[in-house]
Amino acid sequence: MAAACLTLGAFSASAQGKMGVSAGADIALPMGSFSESNGIGFGGSAMFHYNLIEDKLDLTGSVGYLTFSGKTISAGIPGLTAFDVKSPAVSMIPIRVGANYKLIEDLGLYVGTDLGVSLLTFAATSVTVNVPIFGPVTTEVPSTSSTLFSLAPRVGYTLPIGNNELDLSVRYDLLLGLKSEDTTTDPNTGQDVTTETTSNLGFLGFRAAYRFNFGD
Fold first, then answer.
1. What is the pLDDT of residue 10?
2. Which of 87, 88, 89, 45 lies closest to 67, judged by CA?
3. Do 70 and 87 contact (CB within 8 A), yes or no?
């Protein structure tokens, strides 16, 4: 996708500076319950820019990649039954469109937002139960995937470097509608009961990118 953005930009020189592409590094800080299960995320992104209103409004299309390491969570009753749950590492590919609006023409300060989907992969992991007498029993949990609607309002600042720019921004990513299942055994009937829950994931993202502007 990054190569496609660069190729499209290279063929757009006739757009008289209306088009550009930026590529950069991303750092993500999980928030809320996401921070309890996963650590800091690292990755990169590419963004295509089209200037709709000169020095004011940019339309954007972006794709990126982030990976978050999983944490080990311990629970249970010491001496009886204890659980060690290794949270799965999460890989994320956000694919979105959006817009940036410059607040003051002579300054690089802008606000914007992205809307789209994020493709998530939860890596295979394990659950270890320390059973008295028998010792630890480990159950492997296979990898899963999910596609979630995502939005990301942001604020940023651009610094001119010749005809190009250094783009620094901070955003809040919100991923909606993550479904999970919890299976328990009914003590009266002995049957398994599956409960489905829906939750959201959120993280604070920081991006430092170099923007190439094509044309005059």
1. 46
2. 89
3. yes
Enumerate the β-bridge partners of residue 19: 50
Tens of pLDDT, residue by residue over 171-181, are 999 999 887 76
List C-alpha distances in Å: 214 to 1, 20, 44.
18, 6, 22
Task: Please tell me the distance from the alpha carbon of residue 47 to that of residue 116, in angstroms, as a whole number.
Answer: 13
Number of structural domains (the chain) is: 1
Q: Around Cβ 170, how many Cβ atoms within 10 Å?
A: 12
Domain that holds residue 99: 17-69+88-122+144-213
Q: What is the CATH number of the domain that holds 111?
A: 2.40.160.20
In a domain, 79, yes or no: no
- What value does the mean pLDDT of the chain take? 84
| pTM of the predicted structure, to 2 decimals | 0.79
> Tell me, what amino acid is at 72?
T
Share of the chain above pLDDT 70, in %: 77
What digits encode the pLDDT tens for the residues 49-60? 998 887 789 999
